Amino acid sequence: MEKSADTMEKIVSLCKRRGFVFQGSEIYGGLKGTWDLGPLGVSLNNNIKREWWKMFVDNREDMYGLDAAILMNAKVWEASGHVAGFFDPLVEDVKTGERFRADHLLKDAGVDADGMSLEEIDAEISKNNLKSPKGNDLSPSRQFNMMFESRIGATAGPEGKVYLRPETAQGIFVNFKNVVDTMSPKIPFGIAQIGKAFRNEIAPREFLFRVREFEQMEIEYFVKESDWEAEYEKLRLDIVKWHEHLGLAAENIREYEVPENDLAHYSKRTIDFEYNYPGKGFDELAGFAYRTDHDLKNHMDASGQSMEYIEPDGSRFLPHVLEPSFGVGRAITAVLCEAYTEDEMNGEVRSFLKLPAHLAPYRVAVSPLLKNKPELVDKARTVFGLLKAEFGNVAYDENGNIGKRYRRQDEIGTPYCIVIDFETLGQEKPELADTVTVRNRDTGEQERVAIADLLAYLK
Length: 459
Ligand code: ATP
Fold this sequence. Notes:
single chain; alpha+beta; seven-stranded mixed sheet; binds adenosine-5'-triphosphate
């Protein structure tokens, strides 16, 4: 099936209609750059985070978990370079005051502005005669810091200033020593964290792709400088496996090697893992940077605390860092884009989410054939209880007729639907007593399975 901008619109509408994603503060007209996850969105979100944690932390011996505070001492962000340099170039429509990201306007016009100075950006805007989307002139570009500021307690003056973290990474660096001292990890090792990050994006857009409040799943992997290339390659392959585990087709993933002149000043190598979003094309899904010893060094200098790692033989050194960084919202978007499918079933067009079973909000749905027959309902509730105790995420669905239930479950990506009918009760064919119909979401095919075999079948 060909996927286009139209597909993205259908996904956004499905997400709202079926309880995956709602606009933030919707009843008050919304709040730009925020989205709220509905009941099914929370499940998908949690499933992605759980699978990530399993793959990158629980299934390995060299990773340690962390959950640092969102509010951090402002000195962290001075030392990390975010106060002085976490900027995006901003231009304004001179008539309406609307703000845009200059590099995005240029990108839409086919000019790659990565790494350009403000003067170069202004020169390109003028050379290409770029206007605002309303056709008005644009102001000269200026730097806009993307960190949200707040004040803590009743403290006046600069001491009260705090920032909402724009990345989870710094929470890991400032706890590096704590983890080393308490866990005695052998190098190479990683510290992993999942949590919220906040960026005052100039122009949030494209659904969950660019928002102001989002979740990140990040690892800082500490290595000896001499080992960075070998360890980088190993982690790169782990990231490839992670994207396979999300069910993303290899041809929809591209590894973009960020050219040297576009690298952040502290990075010696960065690969952006890009996904082929329908109607938009390849754009960043996750980043993988070699950050040298930049962060630990800065925190050591600024805090006066040693960040050195001490080997069993007493030798000391500052580890270098590899950073795989994933946005949960972008993973959700890519998973939904990959899973969204339209086909023809029973002469009708149907749309459904071909989600991998380990990500689907519900693993299976259970229904009585008719909801007004207590004997069917009783049996369905028993089967439901059995499956729910095992899998947790099981739906009980008796709304509308069977056809409608199938369509609803297909649309939310439930891999199997189980129906309890009169044959289950042994009323029509005694040999079918205690068997149920299991319908496969992708093929629409139905099989008769004994209740006693259901757990094994679904596993
Ligand atoms: P972009 O170039 O798209 O703005 P970035 O290079 O600034 O992204 P990083 O700082 O590398 O992003 O952040 C790591 C990951 O966090 C990104 O790969 C992405 O998945 C996610 N992310 C960053 N900014 C946002 C945002 N505004 N909304 C949603 N996810 C984001």
